[in-house]
Amino acid sequence: MPRTTGRVTMPIQEGIDEQIRELAQALGADAVRNSDGTWLPEIASELVDKVYSTYFPARGDQEWALAHPDTLVNQYLMSARVTAMGPGPLRIDVLEGYFREQFRPCYERVERFWEVIDRTSGEVVPPSGWSVNQATGVLTVAEPAPWHEYTVGFLAEQVWDTTQMYNYITNGWGETDPTRVKERPYDVRKNGVWEYMREALGRWLEQHPEVDVVRFTTFFYHFTIAFNSEGKEKMVDWFGYSASVSPEAIDAFEAEYGYRLRAEDFVDAGYYNSPFRCPTRQFRDWIDFQSRFVAQRAKELVDITHAAGREAMMFLGDNWIGTEPYGPYFPSIGLDAVVGSAGSAATTRLISDIPGVRYTEVRFLPYFFPDVFNHDGGDPVGEANESWLSSRRAIVRRPLDRMGYGGYVSLALEFPEFIERITAICQEFRDIHELSGGELPQDAPFTVGVLNAWGALRTWQTHMVAHALWYKAAYSYVGVVEALAGLPFKVRFLSFEEVLRDGVPPEVGVLVNAGAAGTAFSGGDAWADGRLAELLRQWVAEGHGFIGVGEPSAYEQGGTFLQLSDVLGVDRERQLTLSTDRYPNVVDEHVITADLRAPFDDGEGAGGDVYATGPRTQVLSYVDGTLRVAANAFGRGRAVYFSGLPYSAVNSRTLQRALYWAARREDLLEQWFTSNPDTEVAWYPGHRRFLVTNNSYSQAATTVRGEGRSWELVLEPMGSQWVEVD
Amino acid sequence: MPRTTGRVTMPIQEGIDEQIRELAQALGADAVRNSDGTWLPEIASELVDKVYSTYFPARGDQEWALAHPDTLVNQYLMSARVTAMGPGPLRIDVLEGYFREQFRPCYERVERFWEVIDRTSGEVVPPSGWSVNQATGVLTVAEPAPWHEYTVGFLAEQVWDTTQMYNYITNGWGETDPTRVKERPYDVRKNGVWEYMREALGRWLEQHPEVDVVRFTTFFYHFTIAFNSEGKEKMVDWFGYSASVSPEAIDAFEAEYGYRLRAEDFVDAGYYNSPFRCPTRQFRDWIDFQSRFVAQRAKELVDITHAAGREAMMFLGDNWIGTEPYGPYFPSIGLDAVVGSAGSAATTRLISDIPGVRYTEVRFLPYFFPDVFNHDGGDPVGEANESWLSSRRAIVRRPLDRMGYGGYVSLALEFPEFIERITAICQEFRDIHELSGGELPQDAPFTVGVLNAWGALRTWQTHMVAHALWYKAAYSYVGVVEALAGLPFKVRFLSFEEVLRDGVPPEVGVLVNAGAAGTAFSGGDAWADGRLAELLRQWVAEGHGFIGVGEPSAYEQGGTFLQLSDVLGVDRERQLTLSTDRYPNVVDEHVITADLRAPFDDGEGAGGDVYATGPRTQVLSYVDGTLRVAANAFGRGRAVYFSGLPYSAVNSRTLQRALYWAARREDLLEQWFTSNPDTEVAWYPGHRRFLVTNNSYSQAATTVRGEGRSWELVLEPMGSQWVEVD
After folding, report:
1. Facing B120 at nearest CB: one of A147, A533, A626
2. Domain named Lacto-N-biose phosphorylase central: which ranges (chains A, B) (predicted)?
3. Which of A108, A207, B5, B617 is packed most tightly, with the most Cβ within 10 A?
C-alpha cells in the first residue's frame, strides 16, 4: 500500500479485473482510462474516483463515416519532383511515393486547388497547360520546358485516419485482428458532420454514465503525417497544418480574409511550412483562421460535456491542430484539463505551463505497447527511469497536477519490476506536491526570454519535428529549452515581431536566440531589418544579457553573417573570410565554464568554423580551430555564445552559469546552487526547505549552498532528498 | 658525381665558394641564383651554364625610393567595424588594428577615395556627414544612427614593402642586422617611376654582364598582405588586388570604362574580393584593367632584357598581381620562363601547364630559411620528401623543364643528409625527362572540366587562400584538384559564363563542381539562373558525367538547396526538411568505392547532413546519419556525389574510379591501373614503357594492369620504377 494516494491515472482494459484492482491500489491511482482499441471494464467506477474515456470526435463512428463518404478529411500534398527529360508532354502520377491506403486524390475543382509549378524557372503553369486523368491520378503537362523540374500541389482525401493507421500498423492488427476496421476520419466542416458530432456526443454521454472525464483525442484535425508507398512514415510534422485543409475551409478563408490561398501556400515547395521555416503571412493567417474555428467548435463540444455533468479533458496530440495551447483562442475552449505525453523536461513544461485550464496531467513513457513491452530486448524499466528523470526536473520547477501511463496494461503486468518502479515513481510524484505544499520553488530574479519567429505560440516547443523525437540536426538546439525547463528561471517565449513592436519586456534579464541559419528559430530574414539588431544592441548595452546558440541572428548582410556579431563577439566562417588571420584570446578559467571537466560538448555544433571577431572576445572553449563558447562585454551588458548546447547535466549547468553571468548576477552562484552538476536544488522560501535531486544513475555527493550556509549530501542513484532549513 | 646533369638551379651566396662548387657538382646544377638579401659570388659564372639574378623592379633601389616619397604603392583597407554606442559623433581611427610600420593613410581626395558605410542599414554616409583629422588618422561621423555599425573604406600608403617586411620579420633582421633598410615600394603608375624603372633596368644589365637570366621578383603589385598592430599577419590573399590600387589607376579606369569604382568595390564589406567570393562585374573589370596594364609594362622590361641578350624569367609570387598566367594578356609579355614555388601537385601543375613561355621551373620546398633549417626540431629531409612526393605526381603527368631550391645555401650545408636526399631527387627528376623522351604519358580519352566562377583564369588555383597553405575550411575541396593534378586526365577549368554562352566543350566527358555554398567555386548566385541547371541536366542526360563535391550547385530555390539535386540524387539538409523521413538505399559494393578499406574520409564534409532524394540514388558511403558518397543515373548519364574529398592516395583513386564510372568507361580500370592506391602508373605508348611510382613512405607491392597483361611489382618507400613492355 502506498503512503499516500491520488494524482495518478492508469490505463485499464477488460478481462483482468483482479490484476487491475491490485495495480490501482499499489499505484494509489484515483483515475482510470481506456486506450485506442481497449474498452473500460465494468469495475472501473468502483476502483477509483474518476473514470476517463477516450472520445474521438473525428473518427469515433465508422458506420457513420462509411455512410457519408463525402466527409473525408483532406490533406494538401506535393507530388514528387519530376524532371522533363526532353521535349513532349510530362506525365506526373501525383500519388507516386505516397501510401494509397492513406490517400486518394481529391478532384474537386482541380483548377482551383491544384497547382503545377516549374521549379526551375519558378513559374506557375496555368491550368490550361495541364490536365488530370481522374481514373489514374496522372496529371499531364502538355508542353513543359525541357530539363525543368515540375511539381504538383494537390488536395488529397484521407481514406485512413492517421493515428489509427499508425496504431494498426505498429501493433500488427492486420495479422492479429484482421476484422478490425481501417477507420476513416470525417471533417467537421463538411456536409452534416458538425450536426452529427454534437448529437453523437450528447448520445454517447447519455449512454456512458460511468464516464466522469471525457478525454477528447483530440478534436478535428490531425497533425501532418503521410506514409510512403511501402506503408512507412514518409513525412511527419507535429505542427503541420496540411491535414486541416478542405475546399470548404479555403473558400471560407477567402471570404473572410479577402485573398485566395494557393496550393503553394500549403505545400510550400515541399517544406510544408515546417516550424523550422520562417513563417509566411499566409501560413500565420491560416493558423489563426483554423485555430479560431476549432476553438469555437471545440467549445461547443465542451459545453455539451459540461451540460451532462462531466469534465472535458483534451489530449494534446493526434488531432490537436487548431488547439495550440499557447495560442490566443485556447482558453476560450473552456477545457477542464489537458493531458499530454512527456518525452522530456521541455514537453513536460509544455503541459504544466498551459494557461486556462484547471489542471494538467502528463502521460509518462513508456507507452504500454509491444515495441517496448517485449522479452526480446525491450527495457520498460530503463525507459520509465529515463522518462521520470527527464520530466522530474520540469515537475520540480512547475508541478503537474496529475500523472499517468497509457497503453495496454496487460502488457505491463508481465513485467513486475516495471510495476515496482512506477509504484515508487507515483509516490515520489505525490511527495513533491505534499512537501512543497503548493509553493513554487524560488526562481532567479529575472526572466529568460527565448527569441524566435514563433514567440509564445510555441512555448517550450522549439526545434521539434515529431513530438520529442531525437533529431540529429536539432538536438544541439533542443538542449537549450530542455535545460531551461528544469532550471530556476521564469521563461518567456518572445517573437521578433513583438520585440520590434513593443521592445523587450521589462522583466526579461537575458534573451536567448538559438538555432540554425535560415530557420524560424534563428530568425532568417527577420534580421534583414536592421532595426532588430539596433534595438537589441541598445538593450544589451544598457545592461542586459544575450545568449546566442549555433547561428543566432544569422543573415548574410553588410559584411557579417551573424547580425549581432558585435554583441556576441563572434561570427561564423563560411569560406568568405579565410583571408583574415585569427588570433583567439583563449581564456582558461571562467565562471561560465567552471564545471567543465572535458571540452565543452556542442553536439553538432554550428556546422562550421566559428571565430572571435577580435581580442576583446573571451574564448572559453576552442577545439580543432573553432570556437565553442565565448563571452563578450558589450556596453554595460554581456553576451555569451555557444556553438551548440545538447542537453546534459553539465551543459545545463553551464547554461545556468552563463545566464547568471550575462545578467551580471554571479552572486546567484552562491544562492541555492549545488557543487555537483548532476544534482539540482529547489528552494521553497515559504516552507524553508529545499529539495535536492540526483539526475544521474549513480550515487552523487554534492554540496548545496544557500543563505551563506552549506550542506554536504550524498544522494542515491536517481534519488532525491528534502532538507529542512532552520 | 651524378649520372646525368642539368635542369637544376641552386641558390648560392658569397663567402663559401668551395662548398658551392662541390654542391653544384653533386646536384648536377646548371644554373645558380641569389635570393632576397644575398649576392652572387664571383665564381658563379664558371660553375654553371646560367646565372640567374633576382631583380626587384618595384623596390630594388631604396635610395631612389626615399628620394621620391610621392611614389609609394597604395592599398585599399577597411577600418574595423565600429558600433555607435548611442547618439553623438562616432570617431573611427581608420588604422586601428593595422601595422603602422606597414601603412599610413593616404589623404589624396578623401571624399573621392574614402567611403563610410552604415553596415546596419546598408547606406553610404555622404562625405558631408564625416570629416578626417589628417594629423591623427581619425575619421568622425558627425551624426551616426545610434546602435548602427560603421566602417570606413580608405586608401593607405604602403611604407614597407610586403615581402621584404615578411622576410625582415621572419628572419629577425631587426636584431641580427639592424642597419638593414626597411624597403619602400614604388608604384609604376606614379610620377616618374616608369621612366626610372626602364632606365634602371638598362643600367643594371650593363653593370651585371655575369647575369644570364633576369629573375623578375616579380613586377609591380604585390598580392594582398596586411599585418596587424602587433606586427603579425592580419590578412593574406594570394589573389588579392587590394594592393594594386592608386588614385592614378582608379582615375584611368574611370576614363576607360566609363564608370567610377568605389572604395566598396575593393574592400567589399571586408571580404576584399576573396577568390571564394562570387566575383562582381567591377572586380572582374579591375582584374582585366590591371592585367592589361601590367602586361604592357612588363613586356617593355622583358624587351629591354632581351635587347641586352639576356633571358627574362618571372617568379610567380610576391608582386605577381596583374600577371595571372592563365589570363588573356600573359603570353603577350614574352617571357622566356616562369619559376614558381611548389607546395603540392596542384601548384606544380599551375606552373608546368603555363602557356606562352619556353620553359618552366619549380622551386621545391623547403626554402632554406631558419624556420626549417635549425637543429631544434626542424626536419629539412622530411619536408624535402613531402614536397617531392606531392610534386612528383604532377611532374610525371606534365614534366616541368627545370627544378631548383631557394634560400640561404649556407644553412642547407649544415644538414648533409638533406644534401644527400636532394641529390637523389635531382637525379630522379632528370630521369623522368630522359626516359619519357619528351613524350607525355597517356591520358583518359575524355577531358575533365572543373566548373566554377573563375574558369581558366584560376587553372589549378581553386580554393587557395595563401599559396598552398592548408586551411581547415578548404582542404576538403583542395583535395579534388590535388588529386586531378596527378591523375591521367586532361583537365580544363571552365566558368559558368562560358558554359552558359558556348555549352560544355565537346572534349569534356565529366564535369566537376566542388565547393561550399555561396562561394565562387560552388557558384552561389550563378545558379539563380535556371538556364544553367537546364543546360547541365540536358548535357548529363545525353550521356555525360557530373561529379559534385560538398555543396555543388547550391542555391536555395524552388524547394531544393542543390539546384542539380535531381542529377546528383542528393540534397543537403538545412533543418528545413526534417519532417521528411529518409530511407537511404545503401549499396555495399560499388566500383567507385572498391578501394576503400575504411569509411570514406570526407574531411570537413559538407558541414551538415546530406541525404539521398530517393531510393534510386545509390548511397555508397553513409556514416552517422549522413551520406558521404552517392552515385546516380540521370538519363543516359551518370552523377557522383562526394561530401568532401581531402587529398589522400585512396581518395584520389576513388575520384579516378568515379570519373571513369561517371563517363561510363569502367573498362579503363583495366588499362594502366594499379591495384594499390599508394602507387600510380604512367604509360608512354610511343616508347612502350611505363613508370610506376610509390607515393607512400612504405614499401608497396602492387599489380599493374594494361593491354590485357599484368605485372607484379614491389617498390621501395617513395620509390619509382620504369618497366619496358615488349
Report:
1. A533
2. 448-667
3. B617
Complex ipTM over 0.90: yes
Mean pLDDT of chain A: 96
> Is pLDDT above 80 for A607?
no
> Which amino acid type is present at position B254?
E
- Residue A587 is which amino acid? V
- Output the pLDDT for position A606: 82
Query: Looking at the predicted structure, is the pLDDT value of residue A47 above 90?
Result: no
Report CB contact under 8 Å: B579, A465: yes
Is the Cβ pair A472, B576 closer than 8 Å? no
Of B147, B233, B276, the CB nearest to A575: B276
Find chain A residues with C-beta within 8 A of B121's C-beta.
Answer: 530
Give the pLDDT score at B46: 87
Largest Cα span, chain A: 87
Helix (H) or strand (E) holding B673: strand B673-674
At residue A37, the pLDDT reads 73
Nearest Cβ partner for B609 among A122, A269, A472: A472
- Indicate the pairing of strand B673-674 with strand B700-706: antiparallel
CB atoms within 10 A of CB B190: 18
pLDDT at B605: 85
Considering only CB atoms, which chain B residues are within 8 Å of A623? none
Closest CA to A406 of A217, A227, A237: A217
Tens-digit pLDDT profile for residues A541-583:
999 999 999 999 999 999 999 999 999 999 999 999 999 999 9
Report, as ranges of residue numbers, the positions in chain B whose pLDDT lies below 70.
none
pLDDT at A39: 82
**Predicted pLDDT at B578:** 96
Task: Name the catalytic one among A36, A118, A318, A566.
Answer: A318
Q: What are phi and psi of A6, to 5 degrees?
A: 105, 175
Query: Is B274–A578 a contact, with Cβ atoms under 8 angstroms apart?
Result: yes
CB contact under 8 A, A516 and B149: no
The number of residues making up chain A comes to 726
SS3 B356: coil
Strands B149-158 and B138-141 turn out to be unpaired
Q: Which residues contact B470 (CB under 8 A, 6 or more apart)?
A: none
- What is the pLDDT at residue B645? 98
Report chain B residues whose CB lies below 8 A from the CB of A121.
530
Decide if A266 touches B, using CB distance below 8 A: no
CB A11 within 8 A of CB A409: yes
For A274, the closest of B147, B538, B579 (CB atoms) is B579
Note whether B464 and B478 are within 8 A (CB): yes
A318 is known as an active-site residue: yes
* Residues of chain A contacting B580 with CB distance shorter than 8 Å: 234-235
The answer to whether A111 touches A141, Cβ cutoff 8 Å, is no
pLDDT band at A371 (very low <50, low <70, confident <90, very high): confident
Listed by number, the residues of chain A in 671-700 with a beta carbon closer than 8 Å to a beta carbon of chain B are none
Extract the C-alpha cell encoding A320.
Answer: 490537436
A146 to chain B, closest Cα gap in Å: 8
CB pair distance less than 8 Å for B232 and A474: no
Give the start-end residues of each E strand in B168-310.
Answer: 213-216, 224-227, 233-237
- B438, B42 Cβ separation under 8 angstroms: no
Phi/psi of residue A272, nearest 5 degrees: 50, 35
A98 within 8 A of A183, measured Cβ to Cβ = no
Domains and CATH numbers, chain A: 447-668 (3.40.50.880), 673-724 (2.60.40.1180)
Predicted pLDDT of residue B606: 82
pLDDT digits (tens, 9 = 90+) for A640-657: 999 999 999 999 999 999
Interface of A with B in 511-550 (CB under 8 A): 515-519, 530, 533-535, 537-538, 541
Residues A602 and A641 sit within 8 Å (Cβ to Cβ): no
